[in-house]
Amino acid sequence: MMQLLQNSSWTIRKLFKLRDEVQPLIKHVIGDGDSTFLWLDHWHNVSPLYNVFGYNIVRNVGSSLLAKVSSIIHEGEWQWPRQRNRAIMQIMGSTPLTLKPNPLVADSVIWIPARHGMFSVISALQDFRTPLPKEIDWAIHHLKNSGFLSSLYKLAMAGSVYHIWRARNECIFCNKQPFSEAVFDRIINDVRDKVYSWKKVGVSHGIKVFCKA
User: According to the model, what pLDDT value does residue 205 have?
Assistant: First the structure.
């Protein structure tokens, strides 16, 4: 997984904290199970299973960390490993009767805080109002327009989500472990490049300083 340096900035530490808080809010609804990670994604009542039971359960049942939920589905029914493993028995016992696969439809992902299940900046800000009251309250009251600061804030948020997700995929699929400072540099560079491309933004002294930082 991504490594956090001891001398990481306050911003980096906040991003890492948000990563752990955001994951339970992203729910995978199982259809055929082909696009949901069995051990890494949030789809079960006690998932992500890897966070709860660790790597031992993956190894003991002869599975892979990148296994999909479809690997435990057979003819539209759950087919859990037959090993008498306490963790597996606990997972089976906590699986509600309403949680059933549907091989006729693909998996879907929902954003739990929103009623319609779709992610929005507003729903995210409202959900994180308590953990980050000062930052979020300031953003809500001062960044309502489409000016430079508002656009920059939204761009920074989108860039942070994208590059942290990209770093997660590098850990899982490429066996890379990028340091947090490297991810932060990607975010800064991406945001800077996007700001340079904004033709309608006036080139003030503050913007020049930001772009050259």
Answer: 45
Average pLDDT over residues 99-123: 79
Give the residue, 50 or 137, on which the prediction is more confident: 50
Would the pTM count as exceeding 0.70? no
Q: Are 159 and 132 in contact (CB under 8 A)?
A: no
Q: Tokens at residue 36, please?
A: 């949901």
Closest-CA residue to 112 (of 25, 22, 20) = 25
> What is the spatial distance between Cα 7 and Cα 4, in angstroms, rounded to a whole number?
9
Give yes or no for a contact between 61 and 88, defined as CB atoms under 8 angstroms apart. yes
- φ, ψ for residue 133 (rounded to 5)? -65, -45
pLDDT at 33 over 80: yes
CA–CA separation, 155 vs 207, rounded Å? 15
**Dist. CA 6–CA 180, nearest whole Å:** 10
- Please report where in the chains the tokens 């037959």 appear, as a residue: 82
**What confidence tier does 207 reach under pLDDT thresholds 50, 70, 90?**
low
3-state secondary structure (DSSP) of residue 89? helix
How many angstroms separate the CA atoms of 181 and 6, rounded?
Answer: 11
Distance CA 20, CA 26 (A): 11
Sequence length of the chain is 213
- In whole numbers, what is the pLDDT of the chain averaged over residues? 77
What's the token pair of residue 89?
Answer: 């028995």
Least Cα distance to 69 among 79, 60, 61, 59 occurs for: 79
The DSSP secondary-structure symbol of 128 reads T
